[in-house]
Amino acid sequence: MARNALTREEVLRAAASLVKQHGPAALTMRKLAAELGTAVTSIYWHVGNRESLLDALVERTVQDMGAILPTGRTPADRILSLARTLRRELRERPHLIAMVHERGLTDRMFLPVQQALVHEVHAAGLRGARAADAVRAIQFQIIGFLLVERNRERSPAQSPAESELWDPAAAPHDPALARALARPADPERIFLISVRALVSALLAAPGR
Fold first, then answer.
1. CATH number of the domain within which 56 lies
2. Would you say residue 3 lies in a domain?
3. Which among 39, 40, 41, 36 is positioned nearest to 18, based on CA atoms?
C-alpha cells in the first residue's frame, strides 16, 4: 500500500542514497518508489521526471558542499578543518560529485569553501596575489591528494607488493624507515601531515 505524507526531501534523500551506493545508472523511478514504499506516480508528483530528479540531486549536492564550515582557534586550524571536511565529503559522494562536474557546476560547488579559505588567509595576514596563491595551493592539494588516493584504491594488486619491496634487511642504514614504508599507508594521516605542512609554509611571514 502506498504510504502517506511523503515529502520532497525524503525523495531526494533516498535518491541520493541510491546514487551514492550504486551510481546514477541504478536510479530508476520504480526502484526509488520501492525504496520509499510508495507509488511511482507519487515520486513524479514530488520531483518531476528522472532528469528533473537528477537536476535536483545536483543542486542539493552543491548546497550540501556549500554548508562546510571551519572550526578551530587559529586560521591554520580552521583551514585544516575545512580541508579534512572537504576531503571526507568528496570521498563519501563520488557519483554525485561527478554529476555536478558533468553539468559544469564544479566551480560553483567549490566557491563557498574557497570563500571560507579566503577569509582564513586574510585572518592570517595574507593579501592580494599571495592570498590567492595560498587559497589555490590548498585547493589543489586537497583535490590532488584525493585523485591519487582514488587511483591507489582502484589500481590492480601490485607484485611485488610494497611490503616486499621494503625489506629492513636491505636497508641497514635506516631499518625503521624500511619497516614503516613496508606497512600500508594511512591516507588520513598522510593527508593531515601534507596539508598541515603546506598551510604552515603558506601562512609564514615572507622571508621567514
1. 1.10.10.60
2. no
3. 36
What are the phi and psi torsion angles at 146 (to 5°)? -65, -40
Distance of CA 158 to the CA centre of its chain: 26
Q: Are residues 110 and 49 in the same domain?
A: no
CB-neighbour burial class of residue 118 (10 A; exposed 0-12, middle 13-18, buried 19+): middle
Size (the chain), residues: 208
Q: Of the residues 20, 43, 63, which one is the last residue of a structural domain? A: 63
Confirm whether pTM is higher than 0.85.
yes
Q: Which three cell numbers stand for residue 79?
A: 583551514
Residue-wise pLDDT tens digits, 53-92: 999 999 999 999 999 999 999 999 999 999 999 999 999 9
Angstrom distance (rounded) from CA 98 to CA 106: 9
156: domain range? 68-203
SS (H, E, C) the chain: CCCCCCCHHHHHHHHHHHHHHHCHHHCCHHHHHHHHCCCHHHHHHHHCCHHHHHHHHHHHHHHHHCCCCCCCCCHHHHHHHHHHHHHHHHHHCHHHHHHHHHCCCHHHHHHHHHHHHHHHHHHCCCCHHHHHHHHHHHHHHHHHHHHHHHHHHHCCCCCCCHHHHCCHHHCCCCHHHHHHHHCCCCHHHHHHHHHHHHHHHHHCCCCC
